[in-house]
Amino acid sequence: MGWLVASLQGVGMFFLHPVFYVSIILSLFVGYLRVKRERRDFTIRINSLFQELRQLLPIGLLIGVLLSILTIGSGVVIPFAAILLMGIFTILLSLTFQVRLLSPAYIVGLSFLTIVFLAGREIEIPIFSEAFHSLDQPVYPSLAVLLGLLVLAEGILISKGGSKQPSPNLMVSKRGQVVGTYKARKIWLLPLFIFVPGGELVVPIDWYPVFSIGELHFTPIVIPVLIGFSKTIQGSLPKIAIRAQARKVTVLAVIVTTLAVFGNWYSYLSIVSVVLAMLGRELIHYFSKMNDRKLPFYFSQSKLGVKILGVIPHTPADKMGLEMGEIIMKMNGSQVSNEHEFYGALQKNRAHCKMEVIGHNGEIRFVQRALFEGEHHELGLLFIEEGRKERSRAM
Question: Whole-prediction pTM value?
Answer without folding.
Answer: 0.88
